[in-house]
Fold this sequence. Notes:
The chain is α+β, with helices and mostly antiparallel strands. Helix content is about 25%, strand content about 25%. The longest helix has 18 residues, at about 120-140.
Amino acid sequence: MDIFEKCPTLENDKLIIRLIEDRDADELLSVYGDKFVLPFFNSDNCNGSNFYCRNMEDMANTIKYWLMEYHDYRGFVRFSVIDKRLGRVVGTIEMFNRKADDYYNQCGILRLDLAASHEKTAFIHDVLALVTEPFYDWFACQKIATKAAVYAVDRIEALREAGFVRSEEPVIGKHGRAYYDYWVVEKAR
């Protein structure tokens, strides 16, 4: 299956995870316009962008960029995270298979951006439980890494519960810059 040809949707009784759409901008502005959740986002190696959106135009342009990366460049997939209880988009997940000369070569990099109301252990665990297994196959990787800084206590707890282990290895980005605070889970053999 080529995820860049047709992007599947994941769903259970709590969540829908699907390719981001332009119509998600209004609900996502409450996530990307919240300065207090920015420190939880992983913008490592993103050319200095932290994805803060001041207004609807910023949010719409960000979504256009994400969809261009998906459709035109096959760089990554940005999924919307929908809380079925609320019936609204409460964040996004970015996923791609990283090609690099470091520990994270051929590793799936998962970036999870959530509204402050959803940056909770149980919700994060539910997201990880739904996406991890399919992502191994969809992104042709044997391990998945995601970032959680030391202050992200709910996220770290969810990662531990989902089998992720803190890595001492940095992601080596552009110009040799090292990024830390990554957690890794490997596909069961």
